[in-house]
Amino acid sequence: MFALRGALALVFIAGASASSCSSDHATAGSATPTTTSIASPPSTTAAIKLSCRDAIGTTSEPDAKFSDVFGVVALPTRTALQANTSGESGDRRLFAKQGLLVRSAAAPFELIVPAEWVGRVWIGWGSPATITNHLTVSGCRSKVASQRWLAFAGGYWVGTTACVPLTIKTDDHVRTVRIGIGRACPGQQPPPRGT
After folding, report:
1. What is the DSSP-derived secondary structure letter of residue 23?
2. Sequence-separated (6 or more) residues with CB below 8 Å from residue 31
3. Which of 3, 47, 63, 67 could form a disulfide with 77 if both were Cys (CB 3.0 to 4.6 A apart)?
4. How far apart are CA 64 and CA 115, in angstroms?
5. What are phi and psi of 95, to 5 degrees?
6. End-to-end CA gap in the chain
7. Global pTM?
């Protein structure tokens, strides 16, 4: 099992050839300089579709800081994320770099920022990551059967450190989890100290 930081570093070398694709970004934007490559957020809250081609690699299992939600996505619910200056201002002043782990051949799902948090937290993964508050994922498959999870670069943007909700929705289930960005949610380990 890879630690995600190590996995993202190692799988970056492998490139996007580790996955096949049946989906593309629904919208595109111009690149914006921050701590990661991003595209401008959409002017509406229309969902952005994650491109399977943007996977930077695979891993056999998520590490211990992740929770598997509905067998489709693994999210960092056990340890808060470190938040760093993003290079932007306002509601995207801080960035928590964290890869998204998607189960190979999983059922379609959505990641949704709840309405009361729209404008206070943004999410985005891909190459470049398109900032949104509603991401849809479907059709992503690993080419290696033992590597059951695909990794996508990106993370979370906020204006201030917070314990933020993120809703995961499939055809059959809905669950809201808490992601600590710069500070821990109740029951989470604190974020790692800066290096």
Report:
1. -
2. 37, 38, 39, 128
3. 67
4. 29
5. -130, 130
6. 24
7. 0.78
| Alpha carbon distance 40, 124 (integer Å) | 10
The model's pLDDT over 20-65, given as tens digits with 9 standing for 90+, comes to: 433 333 322 323 333 344 555 544 468 999 999 999 999 999 999 9
Tell whether the model's pLDDT for residue 5 goes beyond 50. Answer: no
SS3 of residue 107 by DSSP: coil
Identify which of 43, 74, 68, 75 has the alpha carbon closest to the alpha carbon of residue 165: 75
pLDDT digits (tens, 9 = 90+) for 154-194: 999 999 999 999 999 999 999 999 999 999 999 999 999 86
Which residue, among 153, 152, 155, has the nearest Cα to 86 in the 3D structure? 155
Asked whether the beta carbons of 90 and 41 are under 8 A apart, the reply is no
Nearest to 123 by CA among 107, 136, 109: 136
Q: At 171, list the tokens.
A: 């055809």
